[in-house]
């Protein structure tokens, strides 16, 4: 083989399928001779020895946990849930939402895009190893909706500050009125709420006159 050629990666045998076939033959074939039974027992012993040297069992005891067990997401935004796993070898992953398998999710990071209310509540990941399937702690996802005149931050909806407005719902920031313009109060929903100082003074004067 030339130095520029890559070594062909050896495909690992399907130990589970092989051992299942061997044990099935041992257990369910009553017409087998003593000689064939001895042969099968030797083959099973050999495959178990190969399994041991292949290190497919847990060299390091596994530990599975969700990194952030509680998250609040803005409706329509995206979040990730991270499944932290220690131990060797690396397991296969699956995710569950309210006890139902989340199809197509087989990595240690779960991305939820354009999140909706139906995607709220409980998630957990399962680390699948040869010796056991290990479940993480629960992660609870809350989906928040923010009305116009507010913005989403740190898990809550807050009113737009004076000098800011927001006509749309479920936004992560407010819009500045512009130079020299202010709103008369927090939580303005329309740009029409932005005005100059003299106009705001007249608004306050009119309110006082009507008391």
TrEMBL record:
Stretches assigned to the Ig-like domain: 62-135
SMART domains membership: Ephrin_rec_like, IG, IGc2
Annotated signal peptide: none
Superkingdom to which the source organism belongs: Eukaryota
InterPro entries: Growth_fac_rcpt_cys_sf, Ig-like_dom, Ig-like_dom_sf, Ig-like_fold, Ig_sub, Ig_sub2, Tyr-kin_ephrin_A/B_rcpt-like
Protein name: Ig-like domain-containing protein
């Amino acid at each position: 083989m030339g130095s520029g050629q890559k070594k062909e990666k050896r495909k690992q045998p399907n130990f589970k399928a092989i051992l299942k076939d061997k044990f099935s033959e041992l257990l369910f074939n009553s017409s087998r001779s003593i000689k064939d039974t001895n042969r099968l027992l030797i083959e099973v012993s050999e495959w178990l020895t190969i399994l041991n040297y292949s290190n497919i069992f847990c060299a390091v005891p596994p530990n599975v946990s969700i990194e952030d067990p509680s998250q609040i997401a803005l409706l329509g935004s995206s979040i990730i849930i991270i499944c932290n796993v220690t131990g060797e070898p690396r397991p296969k992953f699956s995710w569950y939402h309210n006890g139902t398998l989340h199809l197509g999710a087989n990595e240690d990071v779960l991305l939820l895009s354009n999140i909706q209310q139906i995607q709220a509540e409980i998630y957990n990941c399962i680390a699948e190893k040869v010796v056991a399937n290990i479940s993480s702690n629960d992660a609870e996802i809350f989906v928040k909706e923010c009305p116009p005149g507010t913005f989403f931050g740190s898990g809550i909806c807050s009113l737009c500050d004076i000098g800011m407005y927001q006509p749309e719902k479920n936004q992560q920031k407010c819009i500045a009125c512009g130079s020299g313009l202010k709103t008369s109060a927090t939580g303005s929903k329309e740009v029409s709420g932005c005005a100059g100082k003299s106009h705001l003074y007249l608004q306050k004067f009119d309110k006082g006159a009507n008391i």
